Amino acid sequence: MEFLSGLTPKETLELSELLAPERIGTEVKVNGFVHSVRDMGEVCFVVLRKREGLLQCVFEENVSELAVKKLKESQTVELFGTLKEDARAPHGIELRVKGGEILTEVYAPLPLPIGKWKLNTSLEAKLDNRSISLRNVRERAKFRIQEGLVRGFREYLTQQQFTEIHTPKIGGRGAEGGANIFKLDYFHRPAVLAQSPQFYKQMMVGVFDRVFETGPVFRAEKHNTKRHLNEYTSLDFEMGYIDSFVDIMEMETGFLQYTMRLLEKEYANELHILNVTLPDTEKIPVVRFDKAKELVSEKYNRRIRNPYDLEPEEESLIGRYFKEECGADFVFVTHYPSKKRPFYAMDDPADPKFTLSFDLLFGGLEITTGGQRIHDYQKLREKIAARGMTEEGMEQYLDTFKYGMPKHGGLGIGLERLTMKLVGEENVRETTLFPRDLSRLEP
After folding, report:
1. Mapped to the 3 state alphabet, what secondary structure does 157-214 carry?
2. Sheet (strand 183-185) strand order
C-alpha cells in the first residue's frame, strides 16, 4: 500500500528558483511552452514561456542532443543545460541547452502571433481565440494585475477582521429591483441569477459583524458599451457598528493603499510589462453629488441636464476636475439622490431627498457603489411601502432586521472596471477573461 505525505520536490525549476545567484554555472532542468524560435544558423535562440515569465535558451550546433529543427512555437518541452548570466536576455539569465525532449506536439498553426510583444489584432479576434490570445505576455500580465487586486482585497480585509463568505448566485428574486434580471426555471419554480450578494451580506453582518465576498454578479441590461458587462466580478464587503458611511469610504481607501503597495512590491514585472504607473491613493477627495455637478458645470460650461443622476460625460469631467485641481486619480462622490438608490439605502436625515451613499470614481469612471444601509426593521418596511414595492420574496431578509441589526453599510467594486482603469485599457472586455455581453456566450 502506498501513502502520500505531501508534495514531492520536482527536478524542473521555476524562474524564481533560476534567479538565485547560486544557480549560475550549474546544470538545471526546465519546462515550458516554446514561445518563439529564432534560428541564427550555428546558434538558435528559443524562448520558453513559463508562468513567471520568459526564459531564453541557447541551442548551439553540435552541442544539444535535441535537434532545434524539431521545435515549433507552442510545443511544450523539457530542457536541461547550464545556466549562464547574460545581460541581454530576459531577467539576465539564459540556458545553454545540452538536451531535452518535446512533451506535446502542435497540430495547427497558431491563429494569432502570440510570440509578438503586442497583439496587433482586433478585440473580436482576441476574444474569439481567447485561450490562445491570453498566452501573449502582455495580455497575460493584465490578469496577473487583476489577481493582485483580488489578493489585496482579501488580505487587507482579513487583517481588518472581516470573514470571507460565499453566497448563492441563484435566488427567488433580485436584490436591486428593476427589470435587469436574468430569469430561469429552477425545477419548475421561477428563479433569478443574483444581481448582487446584497441581501445575504447584510444578513451575515448579524452573524460575523464584518464580511466580504468576491464572486460573479449578473445584470440583464441590453447595453453594448465599453464599460458594461452582463456578468462581472464584484468585490463586496459589509461592516457593522459603523459611525457613519464615512467608515466605509475609509475602509476602501485603506484597501486601495494596501493593494497599490502590494502591486508595487510583488507585481513589479507585470507593471513594467504594461508600463503602468500606479495611482496616488494617499489622499482621496470627497465631494457631494450636487456640488460635483455644479463644479463641472461651472468649469467646463456644461448645462446640468439631469439633477438626479450622473451621466458618463459628467463622471469623466468630475474625474478631470479633481485631477486638474487636486492631482487626484480617485474621488468619492457622496449623497446620491434617494430616487436613484435602492430601497435599503439610508436617507440623509438632514435632507431625505439624498442618501448616505457614495460612488468612487477612478479616472472619471465609476468603479464602486456603496453607503450606509437602513438597519431598523420598521423604517425598512416603510421605505419599501413608500416605493410601492411588495415584501413578497423578501420575508427572510426582513426577518433578519426584525430580530435586531447593528448600524451597518458596505460596497461593491467592479473588478474588471478597476483593472481596466489601472492598466490603461479603454474597453472592459480587455480585462475580462471570458466576457459575457449582448452578443457573446462563448468561449
Report:
1. HHHCCCEECCCCCEECCCCCCCCCCCEEECCCCEEEECCCCHHHHHHHHHHHCEEEEE
2. 170-171, 190-193, 183-185
Give dist(CA 290, CA 147) in Å, integer: 36
Tens-digit pLDDT profile for residues 353-406? 999 999 999 999 999 999 999 999 999 999 999 999 999 889 999 999 999 999
* Total residues found in the chain within this entry: 443
The span from the CA of 438 to the CA of 221, in Å, is 8
C-alpha cell at 417: 472596471
Q: How confident is the model at residue 179 (pLDDT cuts 50, 70, 90)?
A: low
DSSP type of residue 346: P
Q: Where are the beta strands (DSSP E) in 40-178?
A: 43-50, 53-60, 76-85, 93-104, 163-164, 170-171
| For residue 115, pLDDT beyond 70 | yes
Buried b (16+ CB within 10 A) or exposed e, 117-134: eebebebeebbbbbebbe
DSSP letter at 106 equals -
Please tell me the distance from the alpha carbon of residue 162 to that of residue 400, in angstroms, as a whole number. 20
88, amino acid identity = R
Dihedral, CA of residue 74, residue 80, residue 85 and residue 88, to nearest 10: -20
Of all residues in the chain, what percent are helix, strand and coil, respectively (each to 5)?
A: 35, 25, 40
With H, G, I as helix, E, B as strand and everything else as coil, classify residue 389: coil
CA dist 403 and 424 (Å) reads: 47
> Measuring CA to CA, how many Å separate 240 from each of 207, 319, 331, 406, 407?
10, 30, 24, 6, 6
Judged against a pLDDT cut of 80, whether residue 130 lies above it is answered with yes
Query: Distance between CA atoms of 409 and 173, rounded to whole angstroms?
Result: 21
Q: pTM score, two decimals?
A: 0.94
DSSP class of 56: E
Backbone angles phi, psi at 327, to 5 degrees: 70, 20
